[in-house]
Amino acid sequence: MTETASATLSESWLFFRRWLADPWAMGSVAPSSRALRRRITREIRCEADEVVVEFGGGTGPITAAILESGISADRLYSFEIDRDLARHLRVRCPAVTVIADDCRKAPELLGEALCGKVGTVVIGIPMITFPLEFQREVLDATFRILRPGGRFLLYSFMPHSPLNRNALDLKGERLGFTLRNLPPASVWGYWRG
């Protein structure tokens, strides 16, 4: 077995173990596929003076794809509340700022200098599995750090919007879909009008 294949197997095993420990928090049994990663990175917007923030970095496939898309590591911040996953993510993407804390604290943890300077927030948390109040808190943090008029991306395994747009005062649309993911996934873009 090659070193790359061994690392991929190890990463998949870590992801699966964390899924067994808390399936609702993980949302999927396997890391995001290459097709889903491409679909997400195609939609990221980040001006020269902005950064990208990821909520739910997991084992890092989206984080690595964001780097491969041309966003430099010093302009990428990844929140991962699970300590084991955060530790793995720091090893996989050592130059990225990995914050092992709750993404709802993002405005305070990123600080005043970055609030309003985030071009895109990518949410990898399975929002549909959480109560509406939790979703509101995540979105409040999201819009406090996003640039004015910005949108966030959310990937989901549901065929319909994973967020109740009316209840959360959101506008949004499905930006893409791929069958080449386990399970098949959609990428949604949301903003406040």
UniProtKB/TrEMBL annotation:
Keyword S-adenosyl-L-methionine annotated: yes
Transferase in keyword set: yes
All residue ranges annotated as the Ribosomal RNA adenine methylase transferase N-terminal domain in the record: 36-174
The protein's name: Phospholipid methyltransferase
Alphabetical UniProt keywords: Methyltransferase, S-adenosyl-L-methionine, Transferase
Any one Gene Ontology molecular-function term assigned to this protein's record: rRNA (adenine-N6,N6-)-dimethyltransferase activity
UniProt xrefs under CDD domains: AdoMet_MTases
